[in-house]
Amino acid sequence: MVSIAESKSPNVVLIMADDLGYHDLSCYGHNSIKTPVIDQFAKEGIRLTSFYSGSTICTPSRMALLTGSYPSRLGWNRGVIGHIMKRGQGMSQDALTIAEIFKEQGYRTGIFGKWHLGDEPEFLPHQQGFQESFYINKSNNQTKKLWRRDKIVKDPFDNRRLTEEFTNEAVSFIETNKGNPFFLYVPYSAPHFPVQAHPDWKGKSEYGSYGDVVEEMDSRIGEILDALETGGIEKRTIVVFLSDNGPEPLTKESKAKPLRGKKWSALEGGNRVPCIVRFPGKIPRGSETDELIAAIDLLPTLSHACGIDLGDPVKRNHLIDGMNLWDLLTGQGNSKESRKEFLYWHGSDGFQAIRMGEWKLFLKRGDAGMKGKGPALFNLKEDITESEDLSKMFPDKVHLMHETAKKRLASIQANSIPLGNVPGNKQ
Q: Rounded to 5 degrees, what angle do the CA atoms 360, 56, 202 make?
């Protein structure tokens, strides 16, 4: 039997920025930050304008991206590794990751960047399907250690050079594995605070240090794309670029315009982020969609694109919430499936809102930054800033969405697994 890898199925390169806001790229409307590489990348693929990250903060966002599941299905409640979450917790080894899925099919798997899914030995990347790893185990403001597999290789690392180092490792991985299908995950730590520019980029941007850091990342992504072209594998490689959540509130320069809210918040600015997908010859060049798509959809979508059958999810310890939306990305149209709903959690205060079609309902209007009691209903197609509450005009819609949310949450609770917990650690 010929494995998927032996049949030369597509490679996958999954690149993720850290705390990059919806407005922080020139192809998403920023007038001062120059991102020519990503802009060109968007012209060669599809730009998504209603794409939602896995969560509003780092750890659950990464859980969702790598498993195709809402983080609460994996036991997440609030916070991130190293902040609010209890010490000794991490993503369970029972959670099936996209790296494990591709590895089982003969793909070479690697991560070069920020992990943030657990810093105990049980929860490191090589325990979750990544054969090669070079990473920081938390955010760049939480640690000074740089790891390769389970060994510290730098302490302290130079924060200004992390983007460069992660890129060098990614390029080397591509050059080494260009003859065999691979799954490459590059979760940059940039532009997460502290925002410190690489010496070669310091002062180059018109938008201060934040612009310097984003513009360096743009250039480094160009190095990864160049490695694919030089290796002759550009046309058989799917490349995805996204951000893990909205902009950090403490980083004033980062924007989510025209959206309201930032990281941690269930408002659009906390969850709606840039996302671009390129696959030459399959995804139409220069295309764009405002259809609802989420990070949890990437695992089933990319698996399908690479000819991988996920099988019966009931056989696993959790259900995949993501949907295969490959037909939507490739412009096939009239796909039998499209995402109709999306659930939103605040980073520390739990479930807060549901989107159904163009409508979004906050169960408590205070969570949407509005005074008074009761829900808040917005039409995102007409009111992307979530400014005009229409709940009193559409009570039937409020009731339907509230009931749907309750059903979805009950289903998640009934089909979930707990967080990983090191022996002796109290839950």
A: 130
Q: Is 318 a catalytic residue?
A: no
CA 80 vs CA 91, 115, 402: distances in Å: 11, 12, 28
Q: Which two tokens stand for residue 359?
A: 């409508």
pLDDT (tens digit per residue) in 292-341: 999 999 999 999 999 999 886 545 667 899 999 999 999 986 556 789 99
Encoded tokens for 109: 């798997």
CA distance 111 to 16: 11
C-alpha pair distances (Å), 59 with each of 91, 99, 106, 371: 9, 17, 27, 31
Alpha-carbon torsion (367, 372, 375, 380), positive or negative: negative
Annotated active-site residue in 30, 58, 306, 318: 58
CATH number of 341-421: 3.30.1120.10
Instruction: Provide the terminal-to-terminal Cα distance of the chain, rounded to the nearest Å.
Output: 45
The model carries a pTM of 0.96
Q: What is the DSSP letter of 5?
A: G
Domain boundaries, the chain: 9-330, 341-421
Q: Is 402 a catalytic residue?
A: no
pLDDT at residue 314, as a whole number: 47
What does the alpha-carbon distance between residue 169 and residue 273 come to, in Å, rounded to a whole number?
Answer: 26
9-330: CATH topology is: Alkaline Phosphatase, subunit A (3.40.720)
Q: Give the up-direction half-sphere exposure of residue 249: CA atoms within 13 A in the CB hemisphere.
A: 11
pLDDT tens profile 352-399: 999 999 999 999 999 999 999 999 999 999 999 999 999 999 999 999
Q: Which of 30, 116, 192, 346 is catalytic?
A: 116
DSSP for 249-309 reads TT-TT---TTS---TT-SSHHHHB--EEEE-TTTSPTTEEE-S-EEGGGHHHHHHHHTT--
